[in-house]
Amino acid sequence: MAFREIDLNMGPQHPSTHGVLRLKLAVDNEVVLRVEPVLGYLHRGMEKLWESLTYTQIVPLTDRLDYLASLSNNLAYCLAVEKLAGIEVPRRARYIRVVLAELQRLASHLAWTGFMANDIGAMSVLLYGFEAREDILDIFEEYCGARLTVHGIRIGGAVHDLDGPLVSRIRAVLERIPKRLADIRSLLDENRIWKERTVGIGRITAGEAIDYGLTGPPLRACGVAWDMRKDIPYSSYDDFDFDVPLGTNGDVYDRYLVRLEEICQSIRIVGQALDGLPEGEFKAKVPRVLKIAPGEAFHTIEAPKGVLGFTVRSNGTDKPERVKMKSPSFINLQSLEHLCQGNLFSDVIGILGSLDIVLGEIDK
Known about the structure:
Helices cover 48% and strands 13% of the residues. The longest helix has 30 residues, at 91-120. The protein is of the alpha+beta class. The model has no long low-confidence stretch (mean pLDDT 92). It has helices spanning 46-50, 55-62, 70-85, 91-120, 123-144, 164-188, 192-198, 206-212, 217-220, 228-231, 252-275, 328-333, 336-340, 348-354, 359-363, and strands spanning 5-10, 22-28, 31-38, 153-154, 157-158, 295-303, 306-314, 322-326. It is globular and about 65 Å long. Strands 1-2-3 form a 3-stranded antiparallel β-sheet. A 3-stranded antiparallel β-sheet has the order 6-7-8. The chain has one domain: Cytochrome-c3 Hydrogenase, chain B (Orthogonal Bundle). Strand 2 (22-28) and strand 3 (31-38) form a beta hairpin.
């Protein structure tokens, strides 16, 4: 049969494109030739908006970026401001931040596992993942009153201290998650259909991943041991013992395995942080009206999606002159065409899902 190129539109529709993302595809029968992501449907001008707000007023708006990992956004922005302002965060506050950030990683990865399985057709896993995630959202709700756009970290520390009853509740949730994780793995790990849709699909080598700027689980699934919590520790992460899960093939299946193992490592980190929670204050003394001397600072963290960074430039007033966000979802999406080329049209959604993007963070 003669070669025939066909142009197709996929999206924008939610949730299969993980937000309002449009993909312009060129296919030869069922084989993908090119993929062009079309962005901007959720653009809200966040970075420009932040210039008109005080440093403190910006924090809750970061919740709305990667809305499946709000606390990670809070943490990255607050660390950048604290670095610029020279604010020393108390040790207890740093531990509380680690607990919150790792609980948020658990919630994000559990949601991703459910979404990813549902994209390929495994509905039961979505229910299992969300059941476990609900327990974590209940903790967030008790801690600060929110479940999705969780505003739990402040400049200088955390919103509240961790009291005894909440610590006990966190420990109880951590004990239940491995059981649910085992249920998910029993359904998927050796499932013939799941493996046919993931093993060898959307492969990328370690060198190619580095060239594309991939970070987070997609990079570690290629065997590259790069994790900001280990390599450039922040917020007391160097106090904790945990492993960096790695894959070997850089395919959809390895990205799945890496995230599941990261769930286990997050449970380890939270347990250690609760066991060693220092005495003292849970927030620093920060002026109600924070004015920062002229300067610029950049800080990155290991968010659930990958390396998340903020650049903050001050001009001596209570409002930043410029705030720029480095979005891991945006950067990881660059590799989509490379991952999809030569695969079947039906694999595009699975490959896209394996990158774990959120359009709220991409479009800003």
